[in-house]
Specification:
By secondary structure, the protein is of the alpha/beta class. It has 2 domains: 156 residues, Aspartate Aminotransferase, domain 1; 262 residues, Aspartate Aminotransferase, domain 2 (3-Layer(aba) Sandwich), CATH 3.40.640. The protein is built from 13 helices and 17 strands. Strands 4-12-11-10-7-5-6 form a 7-stranded mixed β-sheet, sandwiched between helices. Strands 1-2-3-15 form a 4-stranded mixed β-sheet. Strands 13-14-17-16 form a 4-stranded antiparallel β-sheet. The termini are close together. Bound molecules: pyridoxal-5'-phosphate (PLP). Pyridoxal-5'-phosphate (PLP) binds next to helix 5.
Length: 452
């Protein structure tokens, strides 16, 4: 029996929308915006207002945002303290570049250095405008610092869409047939749900890590510039790294003269609950950490954090980024990080995320379409399959569930190589009541689509 769920009460009245109609916006978008940029949903949603974990369309309808603008809105849409900081900075100085001194960029860098693991030397920041730019720069710095060229990334990874970042990305849906990824080698995806070594294999981490060692020996000159990976693959469908994987891989990479880069664009800032950074769950400290998305709660900020020694590699030439470190973006980043720490967002992500994952596991007991529920904190994936034994991806069913959730008031994400993973990564201010609502909606959608 399906239930009709009601969104938890929320005390906010959206401003009446007076702009162009949805049909007009869609027509203009079709004509003037690149066709390569996709919209979600058969009937795209037009979002005109956001408040904390909720979004409002042009009719004033409220949705639970369970995807946070693709894991970007970390502390809540239009969080009042973020708005205040940005408005104050906007009225003082909107733009200056790094050719002059400004306190915001240094204040933010100091704060980021303070949340890096204690005892690490990760203390120097280079701000960019996006995660792709941060990853490009991290790879170049690793090459300059080590004098090596080859880079190891993982299959099923997503690191961005600039030419260099696309070369690191390893999902065919996100790779154009153009020259890219020169010197990049993709290791086996350590996916314990679909790969050769599963969750029950206590040596899975060691076995997947052995592939990286073999790759270095067989596909490179035996020395590498870097290994880059997401601690939990985001676009790839919330694929978790097996225990002990990073420590073994880092050992092989460092033995081959390389640096280890953690792409924390999605997993950073407490989202995974147990730790502030995703890499900490693997007991390692990288040489370079790349940040974006949640760092700015929606402001276009990326960042490369590294040691003074690695950072010095850029001194051999001049390097410049017009908007990187912009005072308004920095004000937004500072306010966001302050809120994360003052409101203990990480503990909240752990508590509410555990509640969500438990609720999703209960759904898995009833719905054979659910093949796997995985994740940590508020970085969660639900993989749908047509058959739990063969694990055939339920791509069409995932699309139908995804559409139905939207109709019922929940906006979620979709990913994985086969488009069969529901991605749930909400603003981290989401409540237990919101998670219960989400599970009830998902239950209804799965019942309607899968008949479970
Ligand atoms: C893990 C990861 N790295 C890098 C990027 C690229 O970030 P951006 O879209 O800001 O260039 C993304 C974007 O989704 C990402 O998920």
């Amino acid at each position: 029996m399906t239930q009709t769920a009601t969104l938890p009460h929320f005390d906010h009245t959206p401003t009446p929308y007076t702009g162009p109609s949805k049909a007009e916006v869609l027509a203009a978008r079709t004509k003037h915006i690149s066709p390569g940029i996709l919209t979600y949903y058969k009937d795209p949603v037009m979002i005109v207002e956001g408040k904390m974990q909720y979004l409002f369309d042009e009719t004033g309808r409220r949705y639970l945002d369970a995807f946070a603008g693709i894991v970007t809105v970390s502390v809540g849409h239009c969080h009042p303290r973020v708005i205040e900081a940005v408005q104050t900075q906007n009225s003082l100085l909107q733009h200056t570049t790094t050719i002059y001194l400004h306190p915001n960029i240094t204040r933010f860098a100091e704060k980021i250095a303070r949340v890096m693991p204690k005892g690490s030397d990760l203390s120097v920041c280079y701000f960019t405008n996006s995660g792709s730019e941060a990853n490009d720069l991290a790879i170049m710095m690793a090459r300059l610092h080590t004098g090596n060229f080859d880079v190891i990334a993982l299959r099923n990874a997503y690191h961005g869409m600039s030419p260099a970042a696309m070369g690191l990305t390893a999902l065919h849906t996100w790779k154009y047939p153009v020259p890219q990824g020169v010197g990049v080698h993709h290791a086996l995806n350590p996916n314990q749900y679909r790969g050769p070594w599963d969750y029950d294999d206590p040596d899975a981490g060691a076995k997947y890590a052995a592939d990286v060692k073999d790759l270095i020996q067989s596909a490179t000159p035996g020395c590498v510039a870097a290994f880059i990976a997401e601690p939990i693959q985001g676009v790839g469908g919330a694929v978790m790294m097996p225990d002990g994987y990073f420590s073994r891989v880092y050992e092989s990479v460092q033995a081959a003269g390389g640096l280890c880069i953690a792409d924390e664009v999605q997993t950073g800032f407490g989202r995974t609950g147990d730790h502030f950074w995703g890499f900490e769950s693997q007991g390692v400290t990288p040489d370079i950490v790349t940040l974006a998305k949640g760092i700015g709660n929606g402001s276009p900020i990326g960042c490369v954090v590294t040691t003074p020694e690695v950072a010095a590699s850029l001194k051999q030439r001049l390097h410049f980024n017009t908007y990187g470190g912009n005072p308004v973006s920095m004000a937004q980043g500072i306010a966001t990080l302050d809120i994360m720490l003052e409101d203990n967002i990480q503990a909240h992500a752990k508590e509410v995320g555990s509640h969500l994952i438990a609720g999703l596991r209960t759904l898995a007991d009833r719905h054979p379409l659910i093949g796997d529920v995985r994740g940590a904190g508020l970085m969660v994936g639900v993989e749908l399959v047509t058959d739990r034994t063969t694990k055939d991806p339920a791509t069409a069913e995932t699309a139908a569930v995804f559409e139905r959730c939207k109709d019922l008031g929940v906006l979620i994400g979709k990913g994985g190589l086969f488009g069969n993973v529901l991605r749930i990564k909400p603003p981290m201010c989401i409540t237990r009541e919101d998670c219960d609502f989400l599970c009830t909606v998902l239950d209804t959608a799965l019942t309607e689509v899968g008949g479970g």
